[in-house]
């Protein structure tokens, strides 16, 4: 392949084509499939966590701006209804700091969960020689415990509930993956 065809190929690549390329591989090549899987899962889920935090805040800010009753709005994953106490529509340092802090915390939590889940599932599959619901159950339970420990005031009951929930969701996802 000569240099002109390489240059021509690079000029015709689009952003959509680049993003589709990530579906087949991972963002990183860290030299080991386990590390690649953990890093890839962490980055993807952290982005989702950031979007979730910002969209939740936008929703509650819009609700507050319209003066609608938000008492019937259900709590989402134990989060407070208004995570940015200084965010009142004006541009100031406190509102930006609060938004960045909360978005970073959510990104870290989602990334941590995905990285632990993916890494444990891979490790258990390699150790046991099979990929089944048992690997998913253990990985989900440990991930649930890790998430419970990242909350502001973790207690025994919350840790056990998160472990059971993580195990149930992970096992269900594994069992349903063959159907869909």
What's the helical proportion of residues?
over 70%
The strand count comes to 0
CA radius of gyration: 21 Å
What is the overall silhouette? globular
Q: Give the biggest beta sheet.
A: none
Strand-residue fraction? under 5%
Question: What sequence of helices (H) and strands (E) makes up the elements?
Answer: HHHHHH
Report how far apart the termini are.
41 Å
Number of helices: 6
- Uncertain runs are none
State the assembly state of the protein chains.
single chain
Average pLDDT rating: 76
GO molecular function: amino acid transmembrane transporter activity
Subcellular location: Membrane
Membrane topology: Multi-pass membrane protein
Protein name: Outer envelope pore protein 16-2, chloroplastic
Characterize the structure shown:
This protein is mainly alpha-helical. Among the domains are: 16-61; 131-179. Helices cover 71% and strands 0% of the residues. It contains six helices and no strands. α4 (93-128) runs antiparallel to α5 (133-149). The chain is globular and about 55 Å long. It starts with a helix and ends with a helix. 24% of the residues are buried. The mean pLDDT is 76. It comes from Acer yangbiense. One of its GO terms (molecular function) is amino acid transmembrane transporter activity.
């Amino acid at each position: 392949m000569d240099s002109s065809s390489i240059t021509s190929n690079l000029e015709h690549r689009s952003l959509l084509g680049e993003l589709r390329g990530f579906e087949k591989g991972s963002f990183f090549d860290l030299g080991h499939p386990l590390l690649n899987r953990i890093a890839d899962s962490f980055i993807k889920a952290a982005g989702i966590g950031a979007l979730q935090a910002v969209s939740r805040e936008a929703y509650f800010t819009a609700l507050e701006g319209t003066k609608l009753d938000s008492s019937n709005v259900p709590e989402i994953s134990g989060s407070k209804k208004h995570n940015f106490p200084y965010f009142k529509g004006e541009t100031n340092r406190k509102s930006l700091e609060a938004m960045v802090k909360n978005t970073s915390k959510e990104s870290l939590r989602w990334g941590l969960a995905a990285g632990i889940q993916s890494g444990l599932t891979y490790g258990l599959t390699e150790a046991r020689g099979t990929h089944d619901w048992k690997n998913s159950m253990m990985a989900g339970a440990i991930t649930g415990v890790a998430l419970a420990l990242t909350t502001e005031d973790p207690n025994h009951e919350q840790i056990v509930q998160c472990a059971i929930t993580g195990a149930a969701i992970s096992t269900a996802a594994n069992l349903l993956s063959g159907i869909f």
